[in-house]
Protein backbone atom coordinates (compact mmCIF):
# COMPACT_ATOMS: atom_id res chain seq x y z
CA UNK A 1 0.00 0.00 0.00
CA UNK A 2 1.29 3.45 -0.88
CA UNK A 3 -0.06 6.87 -1.84
CA UNK A 4 -0.19 7.92 -5.46
CA UNK A 5 2.82 9.71 -6.94
CA UNK A 6 2.39 13.48 -6.83
CA UNK A 7 3.65 15.48 -9.79
CA UNK A 8 3.16 19.07 -10.95
CA UNK A 9 -0.34 19.36 -12.37
CA UNK A 10 -1.28 15.87 -11.21
CA UNK A 11 -3.85 14.91 -8.59
CA UNK A 12 -2.36 12.75 -5.84
CA UNK A 13 -4.37 9.86 -4.49
CA UNK A 14 -4.20 7.37 -1.69
CA UNK A 15 -4.91 3.77 -2.50
CA UNK A 16 -6.33 0.93 -0.48
CA UNK A 17 -5.26 -2.42 0.91
CA UNK A 18 -7.38 -5.53 0.49
CA UNK A 19 -6.72 -9.03 1.76
CA UNK A 20 -7.73 -11.77 -0.67
CA UNK A 21 -7.23 -15.32 0.63
CA UNK A 22 -3.60 -15.35 1.83
CA UNK A 23 -2.30 -12.59 -0.43
CA UNK A 24 -1.78 -9.00 0.71
CA UNK A 25 -3.16 -6.57 -1.82
CA UNK A 26 -2.15 -2.93 -2.06
CA UNK A 27 -3.52 -0.87 -4.95
CA UNK A 28 -1.20 1.81 -6.23
CA UNK A 29 -1.27 4.38 -8.98
CA UNK A 30 -0.51 7.81 -10.32
CA UNK A 31 -3.14 10.32 -11.33
CA UNK A 32 -3.49 12.97 -14.00
CA UNK A 33 -6.16 15.62 -14.57
CA UNK A 34 -7.55 16.60 -17.94
CA UNK A 35 -10.28 18.80 -19.35
CA UNK A 36 -13.73 19.36 -17.87
CA UNK A 37 -16.40 16.72 -18.43
CA UNK A 38 -19.43 18.98 -18.05
CA UNK A 39 -21.22 20.18 -14.91
CA UNK A 40 -18.50 20.74 -12.29
CA UNK A 41 -16.79 17.46 -13.17
CA UNK A 42 -13.12 17.14 -14.02
CA UNK A 43 -11.46 14.04 -15.44
CA UNK A 44 -8.62 12.19 -13.76
CA UNK A 45 -6.67 9.10 -14.73
CA UNK A 46 -5.50 6.43 -12.32
CA UNK A 47 -3.59 3.15 -12.61
CA UNK A 48 -5.88 1.47 -10.06
CA UNK A 49 -9.22 3.31 -9.81
CA UNK A 50 -12.23 4.00 -12.03
CA UNK A 51 -15.42 5.72 -10.93
CA UNK A 52 -16.18 9.01 -9.18
CA UNK A 53 -14.91 11.00 -6.21
CA UNK A 54 -16.27 14.09 -4.50
CA UNK A 55 -13.83 16.24 -2.52
CA UNK A 56 -14.26 18.86 0.19
CA UNK A 57 -12.40 20.55 3.06
CA UNK A 58 -10.83 18.51 5.86
CA UNK A 59 -13.44 17.02 8.23
CA UNK A 60 -16.28 17.82 5.83
CA UNK A 61 -17.39 14.37 4.59
CA UNK A 62 -19.75 12.51 6.92
CA UNK A 63 -21.55 10.04 4.63
CA UNK A 64 -21.25 8.17 1.34
CA UNK A 65 -23.58 5.54 -0.08
CA UNK A 66 -24.17 3.70 -3.33
CA UNK A 67 -25.61 0.58 -4.92
CA UNK A 68 -24.52 -1.76 -7.68
CA UNK A 69 -25.42 -5.10 -9.23
CA UNK A 70 -22.61 -7.56 -8.50
CA UNK A 71 -20.92 -8.24 -11.84
CA UNK A 72 -20.49 -11.78 -13.11
CA UNK A 73 -17.00 -12.76 -14.21
CA UNK A 74 -16.96 -12.88 -18.02
CA UNK A 75 -15.48 -15.91 -19.77
CA UNK A 76 -13.56 -18.80 -18.24
CA UNK A 77 -11.18 -18.38 -15.31
CA UNK A 78 -7.96 -19.85 -16.60
CA UNK A 79 -4.30 -18.95 -16.39
CA UNK A 80 -3.46 -15.80 -14.42
CA UNK A 81 -5.62 -14.86 -11.43
CA UNK A 82 -7.53 -11.59 -11.91
CA UNK A 83 -9.24 -9.21 -9.49
CA UNK A 84 -11.91 -6.49 -9.52
CA UNK A 85 -13.08 -4.63 -6.41
CA UNK A 86 -16.23 -2.49 -6.13
CA UNK A 87 -16.59 -0.20 -3.13
CA UNK A 88 -17.74 3.03 -1.52
CA UNK A 89 -15.59 4.88 0.96
CA UNK A 90 -14.48 8.04 2.70
CA UNK A 91 -10.91 9.35 2.19
CA UNK A 92 -8.22 8.13 -0.15
CA UNK A 93 -8.44 10.53 -3.08
CA UNK A 94 -5.83 12.88 -1.61
CA UNK A 95 -5.21 11.52 1.89
CA UNK A 96 -3.50 8.54 3.51
CA UNK A 97 -6.41 6.62 5.04
CA UNK A 98 -9.45 4.89 3.54
CA UNK A 99 -12.60 3.83 5.35
CA UNK A 100 -14.32 1.56 2.85
CA UNK A 101 -16.59 -1.41 2.25
CA UNK A 102 -17.42 -3.39 -0.86
CA UNK A 103 -17.28 -6.61 -2.87
CA UNK A 104 -15.03 -8.46 -5.30
CA UNK A 105 -15.56 -10.45 -8.50
CA UNK A 106 -12.31 -12.37 -9.02
CA UNK A 107 -10.82 -15.28 -10.91
CA UNK A 108 -8.77 -17.27 -8.43
CA UNK A 109 -7.33 -20.78 -8.76
CA UNK A 110 -9.32 -21.34 -11.94
CA UNK A 111 -12.79 -20.40 -10.68
CA UNK A 112 -14.89 -17.27 -10.07
CA UNK A 113 -14.86 -15.94 -6.51
CA UNK A 114 -17.40 -13.47 -5.09
CA UNK A 115 -17.19 -12.00 -1.60
CA UNK A 116 -17.58 -8.89 0.57
CA UNK A 117 -14.95 -7.11 2.67
CA UNK A 118 -14.29 -3.94 4.68
CA UNK A 119 -11.22 -1.95 5.62
CA UNK A 120 -10.07 0.82 7.96
CA UNK A 121 -6.71 1.54 6.37
CA UNK A 122 -3.94 1.49 7.58
CA UNK A 123 -5.31 -1.66 9.23
CA UNK A 124 -5.60 -4.66 6.90
CA UNK A 125 -8.85 -5.48 5.16
CA UNK A 126 -11.18 -8.16 6.50
CA UNK A 127 -13.34 -10.53 4.47
CA UNK A 128 -16.98 -10.63 5.56
CA UNK A 129 -18.85 -13.90 6.19
CA UNK A 130 -21.63 -12.93 3.82
CA UNK A 131 -22.76 -14.76 0.69
CA UNK A 132 -22.39 -12.72 -2.50
CA UNK A 133 -23.90 -13.89 -5.80
CA UNK A 134 -23.40 -12.26 -9.20
CA UNK A 135 -26.54 -10.47 -10.33
CA UNK A 136 -27.58 -9.55 -6.79
CA UNK A 137 -28.13 -5.90 -5.85
CA UNK A 138 -25.58 -4.64 -3.32
CA UNK A 139 -25.95 -1.46 -1.27
CA UNK A 140 -23.14 -0.04 0.85
CA UNK A 141 -22.45 3.03 2.96
CA UNK A 142 -19.85 4.65 5.20
CA UNK A 143 -20.93 7.20 7.81
CA UNK A 144 -19.06 9.24 10.40
CA UNK A 145 -20.45 10.55 13.70
CA UNK A 146 -18.96 11.27 17.10
CA UNK A 147 -15.49 10.13 16.10
CA UNK A 148 -16.66 6.73 14.82
CA UNK A 149 -17.05 5.37 11.29
CA UNK A 150 -19.93 2.99 10.57
CA UNK A 151 -19.52 0.73 7.54
CA UNK A 152 -22.57 -1.11 6.23
CA UNK A 153 -23.19 -3.46 3.31
CA UNK A 154 -26.41 -5.20 2.31
CA UNK A 155 -27.29 -7.82 -0.26
CA UNK A 156 -30.71 -6.41 -1.10
CA UNK A 157 -31.60 -9.51 -3.13
CA UNK A 158 -30.96 -11.94 -0.27
CA UNK A 159 -31.95 -9.53 2.53
CA UNK A 160 -28.64 -9.87 4.40
CA UNK A 161 -26.75 -7.01 6.08
CA UNK A 162 -23.39 -6.53 7.77
CA UNK A 163 -22.33 -3.52 9.87
CA UNK A 164 -18.93 -2.65 11.36
CA UNK A 165 -17.80 0.35 13.40
CA UNK A 166 -14.29 1.65 13.90
CA UNK A 167 -12.04 4.66 14.47
CA UNK A 168 -9.19 5.99 12.32
CA UNK A 169 -7.30 8.67 14.21
CA UNK A 170 -5.68 10.36 11.21
CA UNK A 171 -8.71 10.31 8.89
CA UNK A 172 -9.05 13.59 6.97
CA UNK A 173 -12.64 13.06 5.82
CA UNK A 174 -12.01 15.15 2.72
CA UNK A 175 -13.35 12.86 -0.03
CA UNK A 176 -16.11 10.38 -0.84
CA UNK A 177 -15.66 7.70 -3.51
CA UNK A 178 -17.56 5.19 -5.66
CA UNK A 179 -14.85 2.99 -7.13
CA UNK A 180 -13.99 0.03 -9.35
CA UNK A 181 -10.44 -1.01 -8.51
CA UNK A 182 -7.66 -3.19 -9.79
CA UNK A 183 -5.44 -3.93 -6.80
CA UNK A 184 -1.77 -4.58 -6.36
CA UNK A 185 -0.88 -8.12 -5.24
CA UNK A 186 2.05 -8.69 -2.90
CA UNK A 187 2.94 -12.39 -3.02
CA UNK A 188 5.78 -12.01 -2.15
CA UNK A 189 6.79 -8.94 -4.21
CA UNK A 190 4.20 -6.34 -5.19
CA UNK A 191 2.72 -5.88 -8.66
CA UNK A 192 -0.52 -4.57 -10.10
CA UNK A 193 -3.02 -7.38 -10.67
CA UNK A 194 -4.76 -8.03 -13.95
CA UNK A 195 -8.30 -6.66 -13.93
CA UNK A 196 -11.11 -9.23 -14.04
CA UNK A 197 -13.40 -8.84 -17.05
CA UNK A 198 -16.58 -7.79 -15.24
CA UNK A 199 -18.37 -6.45 -18.31
CA UNK A 200 -20.23 -3.32 -17.22
CA UNK A 201 -21.14 -2.40 -13.66
CA UNK A 202 -24.13 -0.12 -13.05
CA UNK A 203 -23.91 2.22 -10.05
CA UNK A 204 -27.13 3.74 -8.68
CA UNK A 205 -28.35 5.85 -5.74
CA UNK A 206 -24.88 7.34 -5.29
CA UNK A 207 -25.03 10.07 -2.65
CA UNK A 208 -22.82 11.80 -0.11
CA UNK A 209 -22.94 14.40 2.64
CA UNK A 210 -20.26 17.11 2.52
CA UNK A 211 -20.16 20.11 4.89
CA UNK A 212 -23.62 19.16 6.15
CA UNK A 213 -25.19 19.16 2.68
CA UNK A 214 -26.56 15.87 1.29
CA UNK A 215 -26.83 15.27 -2.42
CA UNK A 216 -26.11 13.10 -5.43
CA UNK A 217 -22.60 13.04 -6.91
CA UNK A 218 -23.29 15.78 -9.44
CA UNK A 219 -24.78 18.16 -6.86
CA UNK A 220 -21.34 18.96 -5.44
CA UNK A 221 -18.85 21.57 -6.60
CA UNK A 222 -15.74 19.35 -6.72
CA UNK A 223 -16.50 16.15 -8.63
CA UNK A 224 -13.82 13.95 -10.20
CA UNK A 225 -14.53 11.38 -12.92
CA UNK A 226 -11.77 8.76 -12.83
CA UNK A 227 -10.58 6.62 -15.76
CA UNK A 228 -8.49 3.49 -15.09
CA UNK A 229 -5.45 3.38 -17.37
CA UNK A 230 -2.56 1.03 -18.06
CA UNK A 231 0.42 1.68 -15.81
CA UNK A 232 2.92 1.63 -18.67
CA UNK A 233 0.77 3.51 -21.20
CA UNK A 234 -1.85 5.94 -19.92
CA UNK A 235 -3.46 6.18 -23.36
CA UNK A 236 -4.72 2.58 -22.91
CA UNK A 237 -7.92 2.45 -20.86
CA UNK A 238 -8.48 -0.58 -18.62
CA UNK A 239 -11.92 0.63 -17.47
CA UNK A 240 -13.96 3.57 -18.73
CA UNK A 241 -16.33 5.65 -16.62
CA UNK A 242 -19.51 7.09 -18.11
CA UNK A 243 -20.91 10.55 -17.60
CA UNK A 244 -23.40 10.91 -14.77
CA UNK A 245 -27.03 10.23 -15.65
CA UNK A 246 -29.67 12.94 -15.65
CA UNK A 247 -30.35 12.33 -11.95
CA UNK A 248 -26.67 13.27 -11.26
CA UNK A 249 -26.27 10.03 -9.29
CA UNK A 250 -26.05 6.99 -11.54
CA UNK A 251 -23.20 5.94 -13.83
CA UNK A 252 -21.53 2.88 -15.34
CA UNK A 253 -17.97 1.57 -15.50
CA UNK A 254 -17.06 -0.66 -18.45
CA UNK A 255 -14.15 -3.14 -18.55
CA UNK A 256 -11.79 -2.54 -21.47
CA UNK A 257 -8.51 -4.37 -20.86
CA UNK A 258 -6.96 -6.62 -18.23
CA UNK A 259 -3.76 -4.60 -18.04
CA UNK A 260 -2.02 -3.92 -15.82
- Count of the separate structural domains: 1
- The low-pLDDT segments are 1-36
As a percent range, the share of helical residues equals under 10%
Give helix and strand order, one letter per element, not per position: EEEEEEEEEEEEEEEEEEEEEEE
CATH superfamily: Peptidase G1
CA-CA gap between termini? 16 Å
CATH classification, class level: Mainly Beta
Describe this structure in words.
The chain is mainly β and 260 residues long. It has one domain (18-255): Peptidase G1 (Jelly Rolls, Sandwich). The protein is built from no helices and 23 strands. The strands form three sheets. The chain has a 17-stranded mixed sheet that branches. Strands 1-2-16-17 form a four-stranded antiparallel sheet, with no helix packed on it. It has a two-stranded parallel ribbon with strand order 7-18. Strand 12 and strand 13 (148-155) form a beta hairpin. Residues 1-36 have low confidence and may be disordered.
Amino acid sequence: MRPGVLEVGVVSAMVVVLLLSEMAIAPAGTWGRSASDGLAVDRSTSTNWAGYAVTGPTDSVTHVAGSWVEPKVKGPCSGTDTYASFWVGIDGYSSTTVEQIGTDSDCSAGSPQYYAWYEFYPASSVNIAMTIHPGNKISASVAFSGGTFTLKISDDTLGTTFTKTGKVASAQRDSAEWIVETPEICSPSCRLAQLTDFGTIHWTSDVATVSGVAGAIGNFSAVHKIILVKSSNHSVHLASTSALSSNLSDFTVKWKNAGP
